[in-house]
Amino acid sequence: MSIQWFPGHMAKAKRLLSDQLEWVDVVVELGDARLPESSRNPLLQQLLKGKPKIILLNKADLADPQWTEVWLKELRKENPVLAVSATSGLGVGKIVPELERLMADKQDRMAAKGVRARSVRAMVVGIPNIGKSSLINQLIGSPKAKTGNKPGVTRGNQWIRIHEKVELLDTPGLLWPKFEDPDVGKKLGAAGAIRDEVLNLEELSEWLLGWLKEYYPATLQRYTQETAQLTLEEIGRSRGCLVKGGQVDILTAAHIFMREFRSGALGKITLDRI
Ligand SMILES: Nc1nc2c(ncn2[C@@H]2O[C@H](COP(=O)(O)OP(=O)(O)OP(=O)(O)O)[C@@H](O)[C@H]2O)c(=O)[nH]1
Ligand SMILES: [Mg+2]
What is the set of domains in the chain, with CATH numbers? Predict the structure, then answer.
């Protein structure tokens, strides 16, 4: 499966991001708790070199809590990290105190030089559809930033004050031009970071089905008790995706299967293993 996923607006997003970087004190990097490793953009790690950073594993409400604990421990070796859910608000209250803690040294140094303390400026970055705008809305308690259930909703940069002492910059989602590991592309597709229009949903669903059989067979009991033999065709049949002559409409079955996975209807699932 080859995926064409670095459109023009993403090259523009990269430029916007590098332009803003010099105004920013600290970076809030959003990862997906379902793929704590695959959702971290290597291009970003290059662009952000040296900036203080906090990592948030968002959509923790959809991830396997046992694996979230494992990943928090792993990522904490290099950066402060929190598990959050931008939509339910879980963990979100810890973000501002963490940003203040991270910035305390710099502000003390500025105060020592007699520079009057100003707001902390934080930039929210991450792959498309990960919940950057939702997080900002959750922090301010109102839907000021536009959100949507598909990648590519935010197109420009937008500063929003979330606290008396903290301003946040919303940025468009950013992917990188080449996935070294083909599974990374599939996982990002499954999580919803890549537009469905450029994915082969049938192939992606076959892959996900195989993966779930291996790691989370119980989640497939929603479709049948005999999960080892389950096919996409059977999923389609169980959901009534039939065309004339009783054939299963496989593409519709794939859409339904992906939608159920992405919404959490199959259960709490983490796709990255250490
Ligand atoms: N279950 C769950 N859904 C979430 C969470 N955060 C965001 N979402 C959903 O994910 C979708 C994308 O959210 P956005 O905030 O628009 O994502 P974004 O990162 O700003 O996306 P772009 O602007 O396209 O890069 C929306 O349907 C949100 O409701 C979360 O913590 N849990
Ligand atoms: Mg957005």
Answer: 8-170 (3.40.50.300), 200-263 (1.10.1580.10)
